[in-house]
Structures are given as structure tokens and as C-alpha cells.
Amino acid sequence: TPATGGPADAGAGADGGEGDTAEEEFQGLDPNRPTLRPKLYWFNAGLTVALLASMIMELLPIPVLFLLGAALALTVNYPSMTDQKARIAAHADNVLNVSGMVFAAAVFTGVLTGTGMVEHMADWLVGAIPEGMGPHMAVVTGLLSLPLTYFMSNDGFYFGVLPVLAEAGAAHGVSPLEIARASLVGQALHMSSPLVPAVYVLVGMAKVEFGDHTRFTVKWAALTSLVVLGAGILFGII
Hints:
By secondary structure, the protein is mainly alpha-helical. The chain folds into 2 domains: 33-90; 91-238, no CATH class. The chain has helices at 7-25, 41-57, 62-77, 81-90, 92-114, 117-128, 137-151, 154-171, 176-183, 187-190, 197-206, 210-234. The longest helix has 25 residues, at 210-234. The radius of gyration is 24 Å and the shape is elongated.
């Protein structure tokens, strides 16, 4: 912008400085970015559909399918080795973060399960539930799924805690099917959990701090889970 300007320019800068800064901090994807391959649109779309179909049909293990798909996409879209290296380097941060998170989550889940802590936590939770809430164990399970699936991996909750809750519900005439349905309520909140590696990829691509993402999304995700629980009760499936 020009260095000289009248009072109007100064006023606009004073009033709009914060907005300009915010706009500079967050920018959408450049529609003219050099990495676009519009001529290969249908090839990339077909490759994506083929990869999804192969995953659903379980033609090969998922890691193998992703490796083959990534190699094919890189080779066709970026024939030059230099361009391929640049694309890999551009996503290296996300790859390292997600890989580290996967290993950390696996260790966390292994410690919880292998030491028996999950079983003891489940027993303590069931013991803390008032006897009068037994016939409403499905609703209790739905409410518990919010914090437990947020602070615990899905494996730890569904293989460790849920069976105990199902047994407690069965003792009061609540079917395991209702318990299973109710246990899915917390998944909306779980997808914002720091234990989900995909979240780190998304916040990295959006250039958003994880703490800011959490402060914004948790309340809405929790509300969504409660709406799902309310709908389940309303339609009689929970």
C-alpha cells in the first residue's frame, strides 16, 4: 500500500487494523495455487473412489492400499522427483504429528488395558451409579460416553468399560442393544478428542491452534451428542 495517505487512510487503518490482521492470519486455499491439477480431476476422483471401494471390500490391508494410492497419485500428478519431494515435505509435519500420536495412543490404551485399570474404572463407575438408576442404564451409558470417549480411546471404552455397563444394565432388564446404541452418543465429542490423530491433521491444514479448536468445538460437539441422545430417547431406540 502507498506510504502516504490522508486522515481518512489513517482512520481506516486504525479501525480496520485488527480485521486486516485477522484476515492475514487466516486465509483460505489459493484458487490459483500451483499444486492444482485440473486436467487430472477425473483421474484423481476415480482414484479416490477406487481406493474407498478397495478399503470397503478389504481387498488388501488398509495401510497397503493407502501406500499404493499415494504412490500412484504422486507419480501421475507430479512426475518430477523434485515436485514429489516438495509435496512430501509440505505434509511432513502432519505425518510426524499423526504418527507420534498413533504410537502414544497405542501405548496409552495398552497401559490402561494391560494393567487392568480399565476394568477397575468400569467397576468403580458402576458402583457409583445409584441403584435407582439401574433401569435407566442406557441413558446413563449415553451420558457417560461423552467424557469417557473424550478422555479415553475408543478401544478402552468399548472393550473395557462398555461390557461392564452392559452387564449392569442386563441385571435391571436393559437390553445390551440399547446399551450399545447409547454408547455411540459420545462419538461427536470424541472426534474432537486429543486422542484422535485425524484432528491434528485437520487443525494443521487449517492453521489453527489445537487449544483454540478445542475451546470452540467442544461445547458444540457436546451439545450435538446430547441432541442425539435426546432423539434416541424420543424415538424409543434408547
